[in-house]
Amino acid sequence: MLKKWIEESQNIVFFGGAGVSTESQIPDFRSDNGLYKKKYRYPAEVMLSHSFYESNPKEFFEFYFNQMIYKDALPNKAHLALAELEKMGKLKAVVTQNIDGLHQKAGSKTVYELHGSVLRNYCQQCHSFYTLDQILSYRDKDGIPRCPKCNHIIKPDVVLYEEGLDDTTVYNAIKAISNADLLIVGGTSLAVYPAAGLIQYFNGNHLVLINKDNTPLDDQADLVIHDSIGKVLGEAV
């Protein structure tokens, strides 16, 4: 059924979450091996908040570099299948909650990163841009990346708890979803708002959900597949 709908569709949008990258050995958040189950002094939600970043930069960056950075991760079958669909002219956009940059690494060009990217980093004082490799090499004795130009903290361009999503990214994501004739949602529990709320803008032909666990929108989908997203997309494309 999914393969047939892909063949029939000319405006496909993919909306994905952490489950898309678990097959690239990047842990998700809520599963048994997820980030929220890790034992730290504070819960992950606290350590990834804006206020914690401001008040405890040393502990924030220790957690961030140990748990959020996977430099050697490679795109999996799901990323590659989506890039292929875009090359065919069928997939118009990827809307992702992930910050790992694997969609672009696989070859996808139109990617709306709702929660930012670990690959982009900016000095909070002089706004100079730095790559991931650069901030890894610019860490001081406390492990805090500092701008070589002004010595201020370099902040990853990721959306922390208590921070708002980028308006332009959200606008582009909504526009893409509302224009789609087929929306494929994969690897997300659809529990994180406001990102999960973007699904409501879809009014095309078919809504497909691919996730190993149930989601709150299963009963609204035209097709629900509880399986590996890499396997499903790899076979369908």
Largest sheet: 6 strands, parallel
In the CATH hierarchy, the architecture of one domain is: 3-Layer(aba) Sandwich
Count of helical stretches:
9
Rg calculated over all Cα atoms: 18 Å
Counted beta strands = 9
> In CATH's first tier, which class of one domain applies?
Alpha Beta
By CATH, the topology of one domain is: Rossmann fold
Strand order of the largest sheet: 3-2-1-7-8-9
Q: Give the SSE order as H and E letters.
A: HEHHHHEHEEEHEHEEEH
User: In whole angstroms, how far apart are the ends?
Assistant: 12 Å
Low-confidence segments: none
Shape: globular
In what range is the share of β-strand residues? 15-25%
Helix vs. strand class: alpha/beta
Structure explained in plain terms:
- With 237 residues, the protein is α/β, with parallel strands linked by helices.
- The protein has a domain at 1-26 and 75-115 and 165-237: Rossmann fold.
- 30% of the residues lie in helices and 18% in strands.
- It is built from nine helices and nine strands.
- Strands 3-2-1-7-8-9 form a six-stranded parallel sheet, with helices on both faces.
- Strand 4 and strand 5 (129-130) form a beta hairpin.
- The longest helix is centred in the C-terminal third of the chain and has 13 residues, at 167-179.
- The radius of gyration is 18 Å and the shape is globular.
- The two termini are 12 Å apart.
- The mean pLDDT is 94.
